[in-house]
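Journal club prep — side note

Before the paper discussion, L.F. wants everyone to see what a predicted structure for a comparable chain looks like in token form. Sequence:
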Amino acid sequence: MDVSSIAGQLPQRTEASHAAAKAALNTYSRELATEVGEHGVRVVCVLPGFVVTDGATAHLRRMAEKQGMSTEAVTQQIVDDLKVPLGRSGAPGDVADMIDFLASDRAKWLTGAQFRVDGGILPTAFSAALSTAPPRIASSSLPACRWSSCSPRPDMLLRAGPTR
């Protein structure tokens, strides 16, 4: 069992190396599952979101001191900025419960999968990103040609949103 992070799927501005490492772990975990599955070995990956651990608490305390706020206020500010649908940060027990389940016989048919424990951060973040995405091109309006040699006309551009 690997414990990664949602950072591999939702990198933050100043955390590129952390996000790259987590994305690599996510890929490694998925690929390892295909290699060792024939031997009855399961490989799964847990992706915690914003979880207030002892290390996070120390960091939150430093942030609170710099901003002249309480640790709880800084924590809630982060939850609000991340738009966590459940409205709270995660606790170590939230992640431990998922790990306990995945290590049990109840999860004996699960392998090669990633399990987010993030209070809904990723679906919310992806929905927000899609609503502000740049225009997409309707593939049905493109002439039949090689992509590298085609240049769509401006009137072929669509607003972001589901394609039909």
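L.F.'s comment for the group: The longest strand covers residues 45-48. Keep this in mind when we get to the figures.
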